[in-house]
Design brief:
It comes from Acrobeloides nanus. The protein is mainly α. The chain contains five helices and no strands. The longest helix is centred in the first third of the chain and has 48 residues.
């Protein structure tokens, strides 16, 4: 028990009531610590799953087993999920190490603006992925043209 607080409030509440209040406060603190340890754990599991999905889609797109147009949107949304998972895990870990109040406030702000952030990042990743595919495709085309040109020159 906190003796200084008990001495200050002794005239207003009894010892049993004070013990009950302290136990309730400790229970709330333990629940808060549990939440702050669960949030990063779930975010890390989500991060691992999203990375696996991105890798599998990337492999399928490179082998040209799937339509690139259809899976670019899924790839961009999954990439956005990776960033969201990193943010939640980072803030949760920061809350466990430093100031929990700041971290909970940041998590609430992130959740409140999640739709806007997720949509914006998704659109940005669609653009980036399409440009990346175009660049890779143009490089492959140049290589194949150079190879055909070299083969033609060696034949003559």
């Amino acid at each position: 028990m906190d003796i200084a607080l008990f001495d200050e409030c002794q005239s207003q509440i009894g010892a049993e009531e004070y013990k009950t209040i302290v136990e309730e406060r400790n229970y709330r603190i333990q629940n808060g610590e549990f939440f702050l340890s669960v949030a990063p754990s779930i975010a890390i599991v989500s991060l691992i799953c999203a990375i696996c999905v991105v890798i599998l889609i990337g492999i399928a797109m490179m082998k040209q087993n799937v339509s690139k147009r259809k899976f670019i949107v899924i790839l961009s949304r999954t990439s956005t999920d990776i960033i969201s998972s990193l943010i939640i895990a980072g803030i949760g870990i920061l809350a466990n190490l430093e100031a929990a109040y700041f971290s909970v406030t940041a998590l609430c702000l992130f959740v409140c603006t999640f739709g806007f952030i997720h949509t914006t990042l998704c659109d940005a990743f669609i653009i980036l992925i399409r440009q990346g595919i175009r660049i890779l495709h143009s490089r492959n085309m140049k290589r194949s043209l150079n190879k055909e040109k070299d083969d033609y020159l060696h034949e003559n």
